[in-house]
């Protein structure tokens, strides 16, 4: 389950950065909303999967609620999923 969560967290982090630094500037500076729609949909799905996987891993690794809250918070902070992977997932393998 950890390997799956690591993959989802990387993909979610990459999609979030693409939205922030690529598709949003395209949408607002160059009036091209199409990439934002595509990447935004993928990011939304990955975000939901991230939350589900985080909850499953919480029970698998017996994280406390504070750790789960930090892991979930990392999904809304740019580069947070990459830090979370280093801090909480690579140690547990």
Give the biggest beta sheet.
none
- The helix content is over 70%
- Which sequence of SSEs, written as H and E, runs from N to C? HHHH
- What is the overall shape? elongated
Protein model, in words:
By secondary structure, the chain is mostly helical. The protein has helices spanning 2-29, 34-61, 65-73, 80-89. The chain has one domain (2-89). The radius of gyration is 14 Å and the shape is elongated. The mean pLDDT is 95.
Architecture blueprint of SSEs:
Elements: H1 2-29, H2 34-61, H3 65-73, H4 80-89
Helix pairs in contact: 1-2, 1-4, 2-3
State the main characteristics.
93 residues, mainly alpha, 0% strand, elongated, transmembrane, cell membrane, Integral membrane protein
How would you sum up this structure in a few lines?
By secondary structure, this protein is mainly α. The chain has helices spanning 2-29, 34-61, 65-73, 80-89.
């Amino acid at each position: 389950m950890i390997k799956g969560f690591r993959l989802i967290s990387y993909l979610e982090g990459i999609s979030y950065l693409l939205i922030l630094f690529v598709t949003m500037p395209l949408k607002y500076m160059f009036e091209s909303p199409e990439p934002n729609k595509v990447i935004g949909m993928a990011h939304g799905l990955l975000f939901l999967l991230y939350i589900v996987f985080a909850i499953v891993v919480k029970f698998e690794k017996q994280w406390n609620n504070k750790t789960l809250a930090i892991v979930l918070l990392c999904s809304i902070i740019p580069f947070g999923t990459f830090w979370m992977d280093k801090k909480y997932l690579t140690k547990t393998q």
